[in-house]
Design brief:
Layout: H1 3-23, H2 27-42, E1 46-53, E2 58-65, H3 69-74, E3 76-78, H4 82-90, E4 94-96, E5 120-129, E6 132-142, H5 146-194, H6 205-218, E7 224-227, H7 234-243, E8 252-256, H8 262-270, H9 287-290, E9 295-299, H10 306-318, E10 320-321, E11 330-331, E12 335-340, H11 344-349, H12 355-361, E13 364-367, H13 378-393, E14 399-400, H14 402-410, H15 416-430, E15 435-436, H16 448-455, H17 459-477, H18 482-489, H19 493-503
Parallel strand pairs: 7-12, 7-13, 8-9, 9-12, 14-15
Antiparallel strand pairs: 1-2, 1-6, 2-3, 4-5, 5-6, 10-11
Helix pairs in contact: 1-2, 1-5, 2-5, 6-7, 13-15, 17-18, 18-19
Length: 514
């Protein structure tokens, strides 16, 4: 082919592209059409148009030809990362005569996995608008000589100018949509927070259901039965109901029914007259009298004696009682909130709990989910407890290592939130630096399932796990910046890219991690 014919072909290509851009309103369709023309007219095997996102500081593949959906999805680069990242960072084109001989070529998309990379040339040029790099245009082609690559480079530079306005408009639309999505997510979160009692941590689905029930019942005078395992925070729910009610300025009296012996429970609840029993030298008001006008919270109600249950039933029905040893009825205006971790139905069948009292208490049950069913709340709880014990112990713990987080998230927490708090308190005490490590956690978390990754199997498996942990920690420290992480670990960008691919690490998770 003569030089004249070659130039005519390029002019025809540019004319077709210009016509496409002028007539196609849909930006994505236009960009894909440009790449398809390059494949047809320039012997291009694969092509990508990447757009630089100013919010995430990453280049993502917006349009691609010759790539699958999954390959396109994997095409994300930080500034300075690989060939694409360098072009976006420096604003200068790069020509790679043979990608298999260039260590900076990452093949992040994986689209050349089964291809001999020594047979591929790669060209990447910046897309600029008002002197700012807004994206990249890159192509694969069969390996070619220097002259052919220079001719292709010249054409790509012209194409990058032609599409720059479309890319700029598309980026603006994408960033605006992303901002709207983030604002919507923030508003959704604020709405959830609005209905979350200030004294309770957690936004999981089960907890949100419980919060809505608190909102509905708190302004009423209805008796509430809070159900849940030991350590889930039933007392916090009782607090939330009382302090969101019309009785908030009145007393809130707490009684743990399992902590008092049967011989004293009635005196504690209802008071006693002087001389009612040995040692009763004075009149004593009970908890119900002290709670008059407010709320009484009876925790572990399932442990209450049958005699005390009878008196409690009378209070619920008639709002009056007599002190132990007394005959005068005392009227009280008290809201009763009860809680238990026991199965009251089983205790009714065994004769240990009055059925009529159960129906009086169970008017409005609220179930608090165990921690193992709300693991998404664990990071929030960890941060809360770290802040609490930092202040108490004058410590400066700022983060939890990834292996420690994995241990905390994989544990089944039979003791629920109370056990988690105890675990974090111990870890804050044990930590010498500003980070909580796996060895600082409670020995009960050092289970076989957690530690087998580090101890079982051949030597290579243990080394891989160690390398994986080091890379994750360094990515977290460098906030997902691949170049900084590579430099810190003494690796080339190519080797770092291979490690990221090997371990399936998504660096987006490490952006803005504290």
């Amino acid at each position: 082919m003569t030089t004249s014919n070659c130039n005519n072909d390029k002019l025809n290509l540019l004319y077709e592209m210009n016509t496409l851009l002028a007539n196609e309103d849909d930006i994505q369709t236009a960009l894909f059409g440009i790449l398809r023309l390059m494949n047809k007219k320039m012997d291009m095997q694969r092509g990508m148009i990447g757009i630089f996102n100013r919010r995430s500081e990453q280049i993502y593949v917006e349009a691609a030809y010759g790539l699958t959906f999954e390959e396109k999805k994997r095409g994300r680069y930080s500034l300075g990362e690989g060939i694409t990242g360098k072009v976006a960072e420096d604003g200068e084109p790069i020509v790679v005569p043979a990608v298999g001989e260039n260590p900076d070529f990452l093949d992040r998309t994986g689209s050349r996995y089964n291809i001999n990379k020594k047979d591929i040339s790669f060209i990447c040029v910046p897309i600029k608008w008002n002197r700012e790099v807004i994206g990249t245009l890159s192509v694969d082609r069969p390996i070619a000589n220097k002259q052919q690559l220079e001719e292709d480079l010249a054409v790509l530079l012209i194409i990058s100018v032609m599409i720059s306005q479309k890319v700029s408009v598309h980026r603006a639309i994408h960033e605006e949509n992303q901002m709207l999505l983030e604002q919507n997510a923030r508003l959704q979160y604020e709405l959830k927070e609005k209905f979350r009692p200030a004294n309770i941590i957690g936004n999981s689905k089960g907890m949100r259901v419980a919060y809505e029930l608190i909102k509905k019942v708190s302004k009423t005078q209805t008796s509430v039965l809070i159900l849940g395992e030991s350590g889930v925070g039933k007392e916090l729910f009782a607090h939330a109901i009382h302090y969101d009610s019309d009785r908030a300025n009145k007393p809130f009296i707490k009684v743990n029914c399992s902590a008092l012996p049967p011989t004293l429970i009635e005196s504690e609840l209802f008071g006693h007259e002087k001389g009612a029993f040995t040692g009763a030298v004075n009149i004593r008001k009970g908890r119900f009298e002290l709670a008059d006008g407010g709320t009484i919270f009876l925790d572990e109600i399932g442990e209450l004696s049958l005699n005390a249950q009878t008196k409690l039933l009378r209070i619920l029905q008639e709002r009056e009682f007599e002190r132990v040893g007394g005959s005068v009825s005392i009227k009280v205006n008290v809201r009763v909130i009860t809680a238990t971790n026991r199965n009251l139905s089983e205790r009714i069948e065994s004769g240990e709990f009055r059925e009529d009292l159960f129906y009086r208490l169970n008017v409005f049950p609220i179930v608090v989910p165990p921690l193992r069913q709300r693991k998404n709340d664990i990071p929030m709880l960890i941060n809360h407890f770290i802040e609490k014990y930092n202040k108490m112990m004058n410590k400066k713990i700022t983060r939890v290592s990834t292996p420690a987080i994995d241990m905390l998230m994989s544990y089944h927490w039979p003791g629920n939130v109370r056990e988690l708090e105890n675990c974090i308190e111990r870890a804050v005490i044990m930590a010498d630096e500003n980070v909580i490590l796996g060895q600082h956690l409670s020995p009960t978390l050092q289970t076989v399932s957690t530690t087998e990754k580090l101890s079982d199997g051949p030597l290579q498996k243990q080394l891989d796990m160690l390398e994986y942990t080091i890379i994750m920690e360094e990515l977290k420290r460098c906030k997902g910046n691949m170049s900084k992480t590579s430099q810190s670990l003494g690796l080339t960008n190519r080797i770092m890219g291979l490690r990221i691919k090997k371990y399936g690490i998504d660096i987006r998770h490490y952006k803005n991690v504290t």
